[in-house]
Design a protein that fits this description.
The protein is an alpha/beta fold. The protein folds into two domains: about 230 residues, Periplasmic binding protein-like II (D-Maltodextrin-Binding Protein, domain 2, 3-Layer(aba) Sandwich); about 190 residues, D-Maltodextrin-Binding Protein, domain 2 (3-Layer(aba) Sandwich). The chain is built from 19 helices and 16 strands. β1, α2 and β2 form a beta-alpha-beta unit. The N terminus is likely disordered. It comes from Hominenteromicrobium mulieris. This is ABC transporter substrate-binding protein. Keywords: Signal.
């Protein structure tokens, strides 16, 4: 299947405004995350160990975020391990993380009855209701939790999983859990961080600190524009941020009801449903963006920027001074630090400053994460044997051994434990070639991993393939956000309406 080729043009300011209003109402379906009341620790036992299968199974598998790399599971020991252990061949189809490619292709396949056996999906509850009613996706056996207890335990970490199961009368999807065994805080905040050119800030006399408000960012961006400390010239972009992320600054830092709620509806103090894009506070945010845009502080291409294009102007092009993006290990170490050094010859310690976006009052604003990013669905025509094999694979991925192999490679060859039981990497501390991680520098198939139901965010706090400084940075900002918020700024989820199938709230 061919990938959808995207072609976007910068259109009128009016349409850009409409787009910003839309994204102000939606933090993105795939990232509709919120904290669970308790973190149900995933078991490290597999029950009956799977040592081999008599029948070979080929699984077609759709996965986002693995484009740009060759898919060849026969090419190294990492890919071969998964094929040999489960007597399986993975027929992987890669998608970008852009919704028009990832989710739209899958919609077409589902509606045409031609979806892959296993598919990673951005998740939309309304669509899931329709798919379930039409038998367009696979319904799990009622006893699946007993057969695959480790997958079941991962779903207990996601409150929305139980809500969806109850409303649908069964299980139709597996939520991809963000934190299962290494929850960083009781209330889960969104991980986005500010990445700023530290050397430019120092050259302009800007204070280096942990938090910045929107007005402070505007002041810093103005200094970058006026003084051009990096001698970038006409290519200088003081702030580069795509439309998906702009609502996090305005209106998110004073109107958190407007973000990360799917369709933009929220309950006001009287319990009535309101639509955030129609609120005066959203209009206020749009006016602020208009000022940033017309003053030359906001990337003039912000409307057309795809997933990483804005951020790449920071660590590849060297033309951006401030970006807002994921605050996870892969972004901090693999993209930012490694990118600045490899692409621009800069010392990250001197060129990179990481900080937290806060409101003008110094508090952190957002909505609690649901603790999942997307989900996994299965074809309604998948055979019992294929489904069971895929679930056996996913169940193993949830065990301690599975998590270690996924994130670190093989014990004794790629990592070991020290006298205190801590993980120690045996791999060179560098990212080589086109690899996206230290592990993929040795095993290229790690960059095209088919994906389990526990995301790499969970293991990032303990993996030795991230430096202690990187791990400490991630933990620090989770703790800081927790300290800087309360229930009026980090809003609790309201599942009673977020899992309505219709956008009409009644």
């Amino acid at each position: 299947m061919k990938e959808v080729q995207k072609s976007k043009k910068f259109i009128t300011a009016f349409l850009a405004t409409i787009m910003v209003m839309s994204t102000a109402a939606c933090g993105g379906n795939a990232s509709q995350n919120s904290s669970s009341q308790q973190s149900a620790e995933v078991s490290s036992t597999t029950g009956e160990e799977k040592t081999g299968y008599d029948t070979h199974v080929e699984l077609s598998w759709f996965k986002e975020g693995i484009t740009g790399h060759e898919i060849n599971y026969d090419g190294d020991a990492y890919g071969q391990f998964w094929q040999d252990k489960f007597n399986t061949t993975f027929d992987l189809t890669a998608a970008t993380m852009d919704d028009s490619d990832w989710s739209q292709r899958l919609r077409i396949w589902i509606n045409s009855g031609d979806m892959p056996d296993v598919a990673h999906w951005g998740f939309n509850y309304g669509e899931l209701v329709d798919y379930a009613a039409q038998d367009a996706v696979y319904r799990f056996p009622d006893d699946w939790k007993e057969r695959w207890p480790n997958v079941a335990a991962s779903q207990e970490c996601v409150p929305g999983a139980a809500v969806a199961e109850e409303k649908l009368g069964g299980t139709y999807t597996l939520f991809r859990t963000i934190f299962a065994n290494h929850r960083p805080s009781e209330r889960l905040s969104y991980h986005a961080l500010l990445y700023m050119r530290k050397d430019w800030m120092q050259a302009c006399g800007v204070e280096i600190k942990d938090t910045y408000s929107p007005s402070e960012l505007e002041e810093i961006a103005t200094k970058f524009k006026e003084e051009d400390p990096g001698n970038v010239g006409s290519q200088l972009v003081p702030i580069s941020i795509r439309t998906y992320d702009v609502p996090k600054i305005y209106p998110g830092t004073y109107f958190p009801q407007s973000i990360n709620v799917g369709d933009g509806y929220y309950k006001d103090e009287s319990g009535q449903f309101q639509w955030a894009p129609a609120d005066e506070r959203t209009l206020e945010g749009l006016k602020k963006y208009q000022n940033l845009y017309t003053s030359g502080l906001l990337d003039p291409e912000f409307y057309t920027l795809t997933r990483y294009e804005g951020t790449e102007k920071f660590y590849i092009g060297g033309t951006a001074g401030i970006v807002l993006d994921d605050g996870m290990g892969y972004m901090i170490q693999s993209r930012m630090e490694n990118g600045l050094q490899k692409n621009l010859g800069l010392d990250p310690d001197e060129a990179l400053h990481i900080a937290q976006l806060v409101g003008e009052d110094g508090k952190y604003y957002y909505r609690e994460d649901m603790n999942f990013y997307g989900s996994i669905i299965f074809s309604p025509t998948i055979t019992d044997e294929e489904f069971e094999r895929a679930m056996d694979i996913l169940d193993f991925c949830c065990t301690e051994e599975g998590q270690e192999i996924i994130n670190m490679g093989f014990e004794g060859e790629d990592w070991k434990r020290d006298e205190n039981g801590e993980y120690v990497s045996l791999l060179p501390n560098e990212i080589t070639g086109n690899a996206g991680s230290i592990l993929a520098s040795k095993y290229p198939t790690a960059d095209v991993f088919f994906g389990g139901v526990i995301l790499g965010d969970d293991f990032q706090f303990v993996t030795p393939n991230y430096t202690k400084e990187t791990r400490d940075t991630i933990s620090h900002f989770y703790q800081l956000r927790d300290e800087l918020c309360d229930e009026t700024t980090l809003l609790p989820r309201e599942y009673d309406y977020e899992f309505y199938s219709s956008r009409t709230k009644t």
